[in-house]
Design brief:
The protein has no helices and ten strands. The protein is an all-beta fold. It has a six-stranded mixed beta sheet with strand order 2-10-9-4-5-6, with no helix packed on it. The protein has a four-stranded antiparallel beta sheet with strand order 1-3-8-7, with no helix packed on it. A hairpin with a 4-residue loop joins strand 7 and strand 8.
Length: 125
């Protein structure tokens, strides 16, 4: 059972990236899936969450209107489309899952399972 996050890289301010989270060994659409990020020297921050089967989506205020979370059940993936990036978005981004529909209830990392490595996003000119 594993989550593989990818798609990070170096991008200029105002640019875009799409992060992917692929699930291995279990069906991702049977889980709530969240993206967290951890900037250098800071704690892990909840960014966004998509509910089981994608019925509901949630965003941190800092990314609302710029980031979009989505699912593709055909490839067992969850994506995070990030637009209008700024240097404050620089962080390692992690995807995490929860077997129950927790998106609306909690943003605490301890309520999610982190099953893989993160992907580094660097926003810099």
């Amino acid at each position: 059972v594993q989550l593989q996050a990818s798609g990070g890289g170096l991008v200029q301010p105002g640019g875009s990236l799409r992060l992917s989270c692929l699930g291995y060994g279990f069906r991702l659409d049977h889980s709530a899936v969240a993206w967290f990020r951890q900037a250098p020297g800071k704690g892990r921050e909840w960014v966004s969450c998509i509910s089981i089967f994608g019925a509901s989506k949630y965003y941190a205020d800092s990314v609302k209107g710029r980031f979009t979370i989505s699912r593709d059940s055909a490839v067992n993936a969850v994506y995070l489309q990030m637009n209008d990036l700024n240097p404050e978005d620089t962080a390692v981004y992690y995807c995490a899952e929860a077997p129950t529909d927790v998106c609306a209830r909690t943003r605490d990392q301890n309520d999610y399972d982190f099953l893989g490595q993160g992907t580094l996003v660097t926003v810099s000119s």
